[in-house]
Write a structure and sequence with these properties.
It contains 1 helix and 4 strands; from the N terminus they run αββββ. By secondary structure, the protein is mainly beta. 1% of the residues are buried.
């Protein structure tokens, strides 16, 4: 199991800052929603969705969000499963779809 103070928890924002261009910060969370639905028949499976997002307070600043799933590896610019590289605040939606 993962350990550390960088765990994300639903509905509990985490506040942090970066001060250097190119600096990476890593956070993790556990979602068992997909696993909980594996044994159900298709007619009983429900839709689930997780939103992972980050906001910025500095006007004109830009951050990018990279996400890996299932294996706990740290994402990089070249090794990730999902990414959001919008200008400003970013988010990624993970869902049963």
């Amino acid at each position: 199991m993962f350990h550390g103070t960088n765990k994300l928890t639903a509905f509990e924002p985490l506040y942090d800052a970066t001060f250097t261009a190119g600096e990476w910060k890593y956070y993790w969370y556990v979602s068992t929603q997909a696993m909980d639905l594996e044994d159900l028949t298709d007619s009983f499976k429900s839709y689930w969705q997780n939103e992972i997002g980050l906001g910025i307070k500095t006007v004109g600043a830009d951050v990018d969000l990279y996400v890996t799933v299932m294996d706990g590896r740290y994402p990089t610019e070249h090794d990730y499963d999902f990414k959001s590289t919008n200008q400003g605040s970013d988010w990624v939606t993970l869902s049963s779809n």
